Amino acid sequence: MTQPTAMKDRSQLRQKQMIAEHYSRLAAAPDTGDKSAYTFVPGNLTELLRSFDLLPVLPEINALQSAMRGKSRDYISTAEKLGHSEDVCTYVKCDVGMMKSGNVGPTGERLPDPDLLLLSYTGCFTFMKWFEILREEYDCPVAMLHVPYQADGQITDNMRKYVVDQLRDKVIPELERVSGKAYDEDRLKEMLARSAQAEDDLVWVLESAKHRPSPIDAYFGGVYYIGPIFTAFRGTKDAVAYYRELREEVQQRIDAGLGPVTPEGDMGEERFRIVVEGPPNWTSFREFWKMFADEGAVSVSSTYTKVGGVYDMGFRHDPDHPLETMADYCLGCYTNLNLPSRVDMLVRYIEEFNADGLLINSIKSCNSFSAGQLMILREVENRTGKPGGFIESDLVDPRYFSAANIKNRLESYFQMIEQKRSGGTQ
Amino acid sequence: MKYCVGIDLGSTTTKAVILRAEGDILGRGITNSRSSYKVACDVALSEALIDAHFGLVSTELERAGISAERKQHLLSELERRFREQQYRGHLRQFAERVRRRVEGHRPAAELPLLQPETPKKDEEGLGEAVDGILNKMEQETPELYCAGASRKSDFFRDLAGGRFMALAEEASRELKVRFDALAGLFDKVILEVENLPGESNDFQMHVRTALETLDDSRNELADAVELSAGTVLESVANVGTGYGRQTLPFPKEQIRSEILCHGLGAHSMFSDTRTVLDIGGQDTKAIQVDGNGIVTSFQMNDRCAAGCGRYLGYIADEMNLGVHELGPLACKASRTVRINSTCTVFAGAELRERLSLGEKREDILAGLHRAIILRAMSLLARSGGIANEFTFTGGVARNEAAVAALTQLVHENYGDVQINISADSIYTGALGAALFARREWLREEGSNGGSPS
Predict the structure, then answer these.
(1) Which of A173, A246, A256, B391 is the most buried if burial means most Cβ atoms within 10 Å?
(2) What architecture (CATH level 2) is domain B271-421?
(3) Is the minimum CB–CB distance between B339 and chain A shorter than 8 Å?
(4) ipTM of the prediction
């Protein structure tokens, strides 16, 4: 991932190195014979793919990287010229535009064509349509795992069995066919054990925001922390080392009584502790972050950092039940939770992290996140008595980030918290 | 006399409210926003100070035992003449700069970037045309300010612009001068004049001349005016708000979001208010407040400013009307034409199409007002709806057709809730800001051991 200039901690350098090596390996794939699978972050089966030596490529990560590098406008425009409507998810258009512009990835190297499209989360209907487009383009095999929605707020045995059966009968045979390798459960178990280890450290880091001042920003900073575990590295030794190192660094910040590092350097006094719901805007990521930092606002918890796993709710990959644990993982990703569960989670965050309120960044492109958000806001306000704020932007289309408006709303929101705190007009 | 000031720098107008130490309103001022925010603030504040001085004249007249009716008459006569003097002052500045440009002199030293006009060959009659226009404007001034005259706007830009353009059309026909050249001249000079420091705008300067033109043989006004003019008003605290608040020459802690200011302003006008709708030039805000005027939640239009006050401005331009002529005309409608688009540009197209189909202007306008309010209703619903008293603020609340559409829709959707609209609704944000300023000042006075006198 792109590094903020001030974040030069060892863990960050390690992450950068991991990413660079991964993309180099992808770029060399046509020569080395390595095979790649395109797949998505929510419900990703990274350990399973890697147990077959398949290299994961994550299109939505490429899209957000393109946005951070200022390339998404052109990519989206390319996709629109091809007939994609203005209303289509901008991750999709950005990815399609990138593909049509030579498929050059974030490190400037060309990405290989997929040997497999692995759709392992179906809660986002757009994902299916996205892969239909890629299938047309690449004419490659597709493996699809149908993941039932947690309509009643829980994972039942039937749901788990339904997913496990598909993994065993559909996905694994397809992976064997594409990779030319046999399913190696012991290898998978080893990786799952490493995943759980890294997950423990990640949760520790996210929970560290309960300190005052919070040593981390769990939304803007959080997107860097979830990088390795949400993408191509879960289950690897590198990921274990990264999270151990990150944990040590955060511990040092706690010991020194320091707040988060922002792209502009160490943050000043912590004035507001905010829980954030919804993905960030990527085209103006730093500007967006600065709007918080300038006001002394720290995100102490966020739901976006749970799209690739709600580990803080207790889930860990369990090496003793490899297929079942992967099923639970796919079923448990944040956008697969029903609205009451999301409200419960946000209320818990506000209480446990001692937050001043909930801020929702409602994303035009993302129905999975945005549907029901106003209801969520009202419910959380009612249950916690803490004020809610609502802003609107988009993932990677710069046309939908109106800096002046968002700043105006954010300032109003922070002042509203301040006013409530000081007891008003009396 | 000490006062606290709140300035609301909006995208269309800049408002100022000044409060006495005791908290009552001393004066209100408004001007059109312009490229120099500082000048806009200064002008709004000087207008509020003028208003305050008129208020002091009024108090003195009361003290002198003059009847309410007589007082009202004297004050309105004085103010009408005062405004005429003010207009003449602006017109002199304007005329001088127009002539300077036509003569090819360098423009005012304080604006060195603007280049002088070099008349083209076919514009040789420009000087003659300009002289004619300016002289006519000068001659028309008494008529513009005679008793009972209605004016298109209170702002010099609108008043002078309307007359200049009309006269320029005549001149271009008669003298064969390009209309574009004359219109361009106006556009450039008005920018210069508007951004000049507002020294020509103080009470003392014009009030004595105004008094001289008035029959005050019973000497009722002179003393009151002298007492008022002699009262020194001293600013002790200020808070800025509004869209341009970041550019106000105030430190950060003296800047408040307009959401908070509208909430507090509305609360101070109508203390049982729980929901506030503000339709401003480029944003619409639905705000929920508690029993202390503290904002509990809000919704604003984002990505797009469709259906805001500027929409009406654009429609007024399309129809060649002043923006405050729209409401009265729409109220004459016999039916409400359904307008689907709240996109300002599309609504313009829809307006032209409806006109070409023979629909009446007033009926179309009624539809346009309803379209704006429908959009505001959606924001209101998103902010949590209306459960109790509801207050409508902002410039659009002055428009009776918008108010009628809103009243109907609020009652349809939320039942028989109390709807509050103050005649001074446009000042709500500035009032909230002034209240914040006063609160800060009281806090400081308290901590310094002083008392707010």
Answers:
(1) B391
(2) 2-Layer Sandwich (3.30)
(3) no
(4) 0.74
